[in-house]
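JOB MANIFEST
job_type = single_chain_structure
chain_count = 1
residues = 351
[input]
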Amino acid sequence: MDSPKFSAAPYYGALLFPVLLVLAALGGGWWLALPTFLALVVIPILDTVAGVDDRSPSNEEVAGLEARASFRVVLYLYVVLQSVALVVMCVAFAQGDWAGWEIALAVLSTGIVTGGIGITIAHELGHRQAVVERLLGYVLLAEVGYLHFVLEHVQGHHRNVGLDEDPATARRGEPAYRFILRSAVGQWFHAWGIEAQRLRALGRSPLSLSNRVIRWAVLPVVLLTGCITFWGPMIAVLLVGQSVVAIALLELVNYVEHYGLVRAEIKPGVRDRVRAIHSWESRYVASNAILFKLQRHADHHLLPHRRYQSLRLHDESPQLPHGYPLMIMLALVPPLWRRSIHPRLDAMRSA
């Protein structure tokens, strides 16, 4: 198990993001672009240079990987570092006399850290059974005001992926901008429905504090109110702004992961089971390390309990032409996105 193929070291590179956010906050000016530059310029270049990794762990190797503490420690460290970095940015924002473009960069870079990496790790931790790991995931989601995500993702998205009922599955031809709004709103209502059903089964009213979705909606408001009291009303620009960026990034990733992939009706009223062909896959090395192998998304849907380091590849899964960072930028330009993805969808249908 000492082979570089199984090393946890590449995943520790994600810790650079909150560190750069601290440097950005302390430096101000163009330093505020550091996390954005790393995510949207450096990582796509590294993906191009490093290429893809076509290796999967064997069944025997998966057991060993799952037991390795080093793959879990990096997740825990990230939660601490992001929380510290967010506080440092709040202090710098409150005390600094920043120009409008600096404020915009601070919001964008903070959202890229809390959304691009933070929500990715929250997603990983949200699939775990250990209470501590799930609580750490909730810390990250609280920082972007999206606490209901794990509930809907685990109990809704994984069940309904590829179906019209799933707000997080993008339809062919649907622009990313429309999808972001539809998915974000739809996931909240789906989470409410899941929680209401649970409470009714227990004989409780959904309109009470027993409803986790209500508590999860109230908590960010309480936190924001506390921050405004401590740092002043302008801090809301940073905190709400970075939350919007983070949620938009999450929904862009959702857009890329399942765009145009539909579970066929195999007989009246019966849909195909979830298979590898219902998730786009990307094998690029750098972005897989930074995103904790989220891009091996087909295996994640087949075995949601499997930890990120053990995810395997599936040749039948449709392949993205690049890693997520470049693909989400393409998604923001619909003609380029369609030109990149639609021929691949057509090839799948004609195969």
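[summary]
The chain has one domain: 4-350.
The longest strand covers residues 265-267.
exit_status = 0
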